[in-house]
């Protein structure tokens, strides 16, 4: 179990038959359940990507590339799910940066096919800009339109990846996953927004499983992957879908 050892602090993980979790009402403990394993196509993609990048770290990357990733890791900490600062290894950063890129490349999305992998470590020691809010979320004629506002002008070319959960009723404002990849859009250096237009009839896995309508809430996550190898903090929100024109 992972926790901050102060009264009233945050808890995460499991111990014995109990699991620490949280929702909009705050932290709580629940009985541990054995998860199911549907082995969906998207799960297989992620598992294959993880295995492939772990192998590539030892067998494909050069010693100089591994050293560069270790240097990046030593200069760029990561914040975990309970807000603590942690230090990843170079291998962990390499895998974390490349796994969502491979998801996009294997997603069947036209824009996802061109998302580049990042064998070389970033030389800019930060996580780049991320989406900090959705300025637009509408649904019209089976099309979802979402525009995300970046925290600052993008410091390099890259791609924004949009992950969604199932439609929720209007009273739901909390969602903790799982998400599935639904959109990818190129973001040029100096851009301040990332605009997604999702066709709910495109036949990809997310669209075949869910139908979103105005009045639903859309749980979504946006991650920026930069061409220089950086990956941003994710931005999560559950937002009401408005009716589009």
What is the CA-CA span between the terminal residues? 49 Å
Question: What is the CATH level 1 assignment of the largest domain?
Answer: Mainly Beta
Query: What structural class do the secondary elements suggest?
Result: alpha+beta
How is the biggest beta sheet arranged? 4 strands, antiparallel
| CATH H-level superfamily title of the largest domain | Immunoglobulins
How many individual domains? 2
Rounded to the nearest angstrom, the radius of gyration is 19 Å
Q: List SSEs in N-to-C order.
A: EEEEHHEEHEEEEEHEEE
**What integer is the average pLDDT?**
87
Count of separate DSSP helical elements: 4
CATH topology of the largest domain: Immunoglobulin-like
- How do the strands line up in the largest sheet? 1-2-3-4
Highlighted features:
single chain; 245 residues; Immunoglobulin-like; four-stranded antiparallel sheet; four-stranded mixed sheet
